[in-house]
Description:
This is Carbohydrate-binding domain-containing protein. By secondary structure, this protein is mainly beta. The longest helix has 4 residues, at about 40. The chain has two domains: about 1-45, no CATH class; about 45-93, no CATH class. It has one helix at about 40; strands at about 20-25, 30-35, 50-55, 60, 70-75, 90. The radius of gyration is 15 Å and the shape is globular. The two termini are about 25 Å apart.
Amino acid sequence: xxxxxxxxxxxxxxxxxxxxxxxxxxxxxxxxxxxxxxxxxxxxxxxxxxxxxxxxxxxxxxxxxxxxxxxxxxxxxxxxxxxxxxxxxxxxx
Length: 93
């Protein structure tokens, strides 16, 4: 999702959640995205209180045809976006 709320297809087949809704807000010098992804779109049941998921939040900012121009992640990933051992933990309440 970019600042104009345009959604890009993820480049790995089968990784786009069905039914995701997004909204963006642009401020001077920054922008924000809000996203809801239905559990059904992920093909899973809703979590229960206390359940823990390993997650990573990533930002990919391509410039032209260069897909490696700017890649930012929330967790300190050392081996790329699929470095599951270093994902953060999301705890449901």
